[in-house]
Design brief:
Elements (H helix, E strand, L loop, with lengths): L3 H43 E2 L2 E2 L2 H8 L1 H34 L5 H8 L7 H12 L4 H9 L10 H12 L2 H12 L3 H9 L4 H12 L1 H16 L3 H5 L8 H9 L5 H27 L21 H28 L4 H6 L10 H8 L1 H34 L4 H9 L2 H4 L2 H11 L17 H24 L3 H9 L4 H29 L3 H6 L7 H8 L6 H44 L1
Antiparallel strand pairs: 1-2
């Protein structure tokens, strides 16, 4: 006869079966698509058919092309640390620190890289500054001896990436500037300090931690640069990432690609370690408790005012010109595009009709929609479950270790994982149900999911920490099961964050190019691949027109996502801040 204790044991074992099954799926995903691909790169770098070997490393050290690419990547990172910081800080000061007219219009242009990014950004700059670009053709009429290919090489890469990375400053550095207590500035004024003294001795020391973090992130971005060197760098300026793609497509050179991937990973780990060390120093400054909102500073010197407006307008033109020209040109017929003429007589909707009604043009867009949408949903659902398991695990080291497995894509470049897929799953494997990544579309969904998992995990964990656990305890005390409590109490509390992450993950992968360039099967190109192909110097006018329509549609979608995720939240935050300010008064 079964005792009540045995019945309870059987019941708990039955109830734990779904949990065990979920844990096994999460563990399998981590092993199959994160851990093993990374290990395969390391193994191929130090092992050949006969055992341990350093031949691949020797090949890299003896390859002039590979060593030049490493130097160029380091140079790109170092240059961007300076140029992007100068431009990014200047843009934030122009829109949020100094009191300038048209600051809202300037801000829209300065934040355009949020929606005009990746391959569409590089495509836009090529359309304006490339060999057949509008500005280049205009300059050739004035300077006939000008080299049509002037916008290429290191300068072009630095230029595009400088203005393509400033959006990070427009988000994070702007938040830091707006968080400064205005009474600190008022106190400095009362002590006789001028505007430059206040800026460099009061404002900048306060935002120093944020600035250091952004500088490190900018160096990291430049180091792993892919699309810009590939599209505008030309043959004379190759960096590590495009070279990895070149070697990866040659089976005999994949060991060299693996070593170069490890070089990128090593730099990335060192940068993350330095950033963590810098944060642990507690380099933060707080000397006031009033928290009075920052007021924009008026510029009284007329000469300085003119100089600042000139800089603001120049930066506005540089940032806005590629996007604006692509939007306008997307409505021009091929005759006008061939002659670089903008006329109302040549305006047409035929380009949009060609994209939206022609399956050859529409399918890559729909394919990217589908892949990025599925990846966004999978990443959020998996991390919702994982974070829940981790938060509930008290002494289960296996569950706790799962969290660290899913942070690995933060430590290694995405192309390393993509290369790992190519090397370990180039033939059917039992671990992935006898499937192969060669010629398969599903691997792109997995790749897109893996790239966004670390940030998704981090944000959802923060949302769980902000959740009031007493509500969950009250629900369980009232007799609700753990499953019912999760769906009725916990999930609604973290749902806004989850939905926002779904939208942002979808946005980030929609025009993804880095991993797609390694993994897409011929005939199933994604939108990022098509835009890159249509941006070549030998592309037809029809292809360029299609590219412009793609770019406009992607910018529109990205803008809507940014608005619903950030815009509405910012308005609510502003109203709440205003309410607190009025209450304080």
């Amino acid at each position: 006869m079964m005792t009540s204790k045995n019945k309870s044991y059987e019941k708990n074992r039955y109830l734990n079966l779904p949990k065990i099954f979920i844990i096994l799926i999460i563990l399998w995903f981590a092993i199959a698509f994160i851990i093993l691909p990374t290990i395969s790169i390391i193994a191929s770098s130090f092992y050949d058919g006969s055992g341990f070997s350093l031949n691949a490393i020797r090949k890299v050290l003896n390859s002039k092309r590979a060593m030049t690419a490493i130097k160029n990547s380091l140079l790109t990172g170092l240059v961007l640390m300076v140029t992007t910081t100068i431009v990014g800080v200047t843009q934030v000061l122009l829109t949020d620190y100094f009191d300038l007219k048209f600051s809202k219009l300037f801000r829209i242009a300065y934040m355009s890289p949020l929606v005009f990014t990746g391959v569409i950004l590089n495509s836009g700059y090529l359309y304006v500054y490339g060999k057949t670009g509008i500005l280049t053709q205009f300059l050739l009429k004035i300077f006939p001896n000008l080299n049509p290919g002037w916008f290429s090489g290191a300068f072009a890469v630095f230029f595009v990436m400088t203005f393509g990375c400033t959006h990070q400053y427009m988000i994070f550095f702007r938040n830091a500037i707006n968080g400064i207590d205005n009474e600190l500035i008022d106190s400095a004024k009362n002590l006789g300090s001028n505007q430059m003294q206040i800026l460099f001795k009061v404002v900048m020391p306060i935002v120093k931690p944020t600035l250091i973090t952004l500088i490190i992130i900018t160096f990291q971005t430049g180091l792993a640069s892919f699309a810009a060197p590939l599209m505008v760098g030309g043959k004379n300026f190759q960096t590590i990432s495009p070279l990895i793609l070149t070697f990866a497509n040659r089976p005999r050179s994949r060991d060299i690609a693996a070593v170069l991937s490890l070089v990128l990973a090593a730099f990335q780990i060192l940068l993350l370690a330095f950033m963590t060390w810098n944060e642990s120093k507690g380099n933060y400054m707080s000397v006031s408790n009033s928290n009075k909102r920052l007021k924009k500073q008026k510029i009284h010197n007329p000469v300085a005012k003119v100089f600042i407006y000139v800089i603001a307008i120049a930066l506005f033109i540089i940032q806005a010109l590629p996007g604006v020209m692509i939007v306008i040109s997307s409505f021009l017929d091929t005759q006008a595009l061939s002659r670089n003429i903008i006329s109302i007589k040549n305006f047409t909707l035929q380009n949009y009709k060609n994209v939206l009604t022609n399956p050859n043009n529409l399918n890559p867009l729909l394919r990217s929609f589908l892949f990025s949408g599925i990846a966004a949903i999978i990443s959020v659902m998996m991390m919702l479950i994982l974070v829940r398991l981790v938060m509930k695990a008290k002494s289960n080291n296996l569950i706790k270790s799962l969290e660290y497995f899913y942070y690995i894509p933060w430590l290694v470049p995405s192309i390393l994982i993509a290369l790992g897929y190519m090397m370990i799953y180039d033939r059917p494997r039992f671990l992935i149900f006898n499937q192969s990544v060669i010629g398969s579309q599903w691997i792109l969904v997995i790749a897109y999911t893996v790239t966004v998992i670390p940030s998704t995990l981090r944000y959802l964990k923060s949302a769980y920490y902000n959740f009031n656990t007493s509500l969950e305890e009250a629900s369980q005390n009232l007799g609700a099961s753990s499953l019912r409590t999760f769906f009725k109490v916990v999930l609604p509390a973290v749902l806004p964050t989850a939905l926002a992450l779904c939208a942002l993950n979808f946005n980030g992968n929609l025009a993804e190019y880095n991993m797609s360039a390694f993994l897409y099967p011929p005939g199933s190109e994604t939108i990022g691949i098509i835009i890159r192909q249509n941006s070549s110097a030998v592309a037809t006018l029809d292809s360029k027109a299609v590219n412009m329509v793609y770019s406009v549609l992607l910018m529109l979608i990205n803008s809507l996502v940014i608005y619903f995720v950030y815009g509405r939240g910012l308005k609510i935050s502003d109203r709440q801040s205003g309410f607190r300010e009025e209450k304080r008064k």
